[in-house]
Amino acid sequence: MTDTFYGSDFRALEAFDPDIAGVLLSELDRLRGGLQLIASENFSSPEVLTALGSTLSNKYAEGYPGRRYYGGCSEVDKAEQIAIDRCRQLFGADHANVQPHSGASANQAVYGAFLKPGETLLAMSLPHGGHLTHGTKVSFSGKWFTAVHYGVDRETENIDYDQVEKLAREHRPKIILAGGSAIPRTIDFARFRAIADEVGAIFWVDAAHFIGLVAGGAIESPVPYADVVSFTTHKVLRGPRSGAIVCTAEHATAIDKAVFPMMQGGPQMHSIAAKAVNFKECATAEYRDYARRVVANAAVLATELGTRGIRPTTGGTDTHLSLHDLQGVGVTGADAESRADAAGITLNKNAIPFDPQKPNVASGIRVGTPCVTTQGMGEDEMRTIAELIHRAVTKGDADPEHPVSREVRATVSDLVARFPAYARPDANGR
Ligand code: DSN
């Protein structure tokens, strides 16, 4: 008999707290019932979810394996050491810290390791595809540090490397940061490294979005170029909702001290165990094939939306996501998001470079293929999805009872029934 305390016991929860059990079930229904195209989401495996729902959540373990501030850490030490070893091996990194609670926490630690208040960083601007934690005024990173931002070239819509070089020479930043949340193209890490070397800056890559593609060998790794790489573990990587950092041996102590005790308290050992499971999954041939298919699917989806007038910025994508300009079809990003939602398609409005709209309206949408590829969909299904998005966005309505919402939703239902997220158990309970 399985000891239910190894992992989650849904039946017990259902009996004790039907309100929350009901939310768990209805969220599962939502995931199963629609198309999930948020580029930063994925469906983690039952094995990862089991580690997350385990008794490792109970343990306080400030410190690092073998050097803790509490007794009773013998077992969680094993989990963290396995996670560290697998992470280092997966990315070929000198050092790994698997304790950050999230991408934002990982980024805080990088700032803590390298920057003093008031010092300067050079990063991609948020409206051009960067991230809140990359020096925006509303974030600690913009409040406490001096942020200088580069953007994309107006013609190519790709990173303006000449501008990066010019700003680096002018401002002599202590950190140069590459990465963001809406960058469809691969990044020229060698060029960034050369610029950082010229001005004596730390080269930091926030690989949160694309680290899963790196793990699966589908795109070039930043690890050989960067001093430090921070990332989340729940996007293409398909692990638990969390973060991690890898860096060169030279910076290992600074990063470890910045994660704990500078920024965080007790590590989440259940999440660290789930990251270990995820790193093992990512080392398989199946995952490498998955990463390749994520990119192939994204390319088809971007092209097919483009042929329907929903223009991909930069002309396409090399990664798991594409960013689309809706001005040609005369719809705002906010309207597109709500129309798609009513039709059973979850995606997000997104600013496009040089966007004339305010961020909460936006002229674009961002779509990604991590979830639909996990469901087993391929290039034929991407063509269908492009057609469904186009119909919902250009002919649909935010009202779920509108005829176009109903019609698109029916096709979405047929599609996800053929490629289920979290397939229901068969008669044998498997
Ligand atoms: N919220 C994430 C995304 O959607 O890209 C970034 O933090």
- The CATH topology of the largest domain comes to Aspartate Aminotransferase, domain 2
CATH superfamily of the largest domain: Type I PLP-dependent aspartate aminotransferase-like (Major domain)
- Low-confidence segments, given as residue ranges, are none
- Report how far apart the termini are: 16 Å
The order of strands across the largest sheet is 4-10-9-8-7-5-6
Instruction: Give the helix proportion (percent range).
Output: 40-55%
Q: Which cofactor or ligand species appear?
A: D-serine
Rg, Cα atoms, Å: 22 Å
The appropriate CATH architecture of the largest domain is: 3-Layer(aba) Sandwich
Please, could you describe this protein's structure?
- This protein has 430 residues and is of the alpha/beta class.
- It has helices at residues 10-16, 18-33, 46-52, 74-91, 103-114, 140-144, 161-171, 189-199, 211-215, 252-263, 269-282, 285-307, 333-342, 370-374, 379-395, 403-418; strands at residues 35-36, 63-64, 67-68, 95-97, 120-124, 146-150, 175-178, 202-206, 228-232, 243-247, 311-312, 321-325, 345-346, 348-350, 364-368.
- It starts with 9 loop residues before the first helix and ends in a 12-residue tail after the last helix.
- The chain binds D-serine.
- D-serine binds at residues 40, 103, 131, 181.
